[in-house]
């Protein structure tokens, strides 16, 4: 599900579940955290996070969401993975092609640099069936794009294309091959990269906001899990949060 390859100064971490647009199950979250931790422990200066099969990540797998025994723990697990990405010493570059939805957007938000292809699209569609992005999305999205844009994206569930994502600061560049940006960053001094990232990441503690986010997700999950299962059935096993 999660593949890791070393390519010079760049460690490539690939979410490899293209038949489900790289939707993430709990076990996949564990694998993703382990892959990022392993890459970081090898003093890799740049980690490049991508999805297989023409999509970045469709978020949380709806089969898993519909059967959650402990939705708050699931939200916290996603937050922990996003924090593992954000807290890595290495610079983490998200190369976003195709769909980034829900938790996929949130994993991208945790990265240091987000680079999209012209075909990339972004959305937080959880409100459609009574949920929301609870892997740190309510903390990071307004910080990155501003409160007004974050409210619009999160409350409407609408799809944002690559050009708009660049305009509002959701991504920093739109290029044909995002990997070239990872290579560009990796060409610099690794010790300087780590220091600059640490300084730019130095801000107030968001843990209390994340706890509140996970608790709210659990309450909504209890209320709407039946609707989620119905939506899952109507889509015939396709799509995810």
UniProtKB/TrEMBL annotation:
Molecular-function GO terms, alphabetical: isomerase activity
Keyword annotations of the record: Isomerase
Annotated signal sequence range: none
Lineage: Archaea, Methanobacteriati, Methanobacteriota, Stenosarchaea group, Halobacteria
Taxonomic superkingdom: Archaea
Gene3D superfamilies found in the cross-reference section: 2-enoyl-CoA Hydratase, Chain A, domain 1
Family per record: Belongs to the enoyl-CoA hydratase/isomerase family.
Protein's organism: Halogeometricum borinquense
Name by which UniProt lists this protein: Enoyl-CoA hydratase/isomerase family protein
PANTHER family: ENOYL-COA HYDRATASE, IP11341P-RELATED
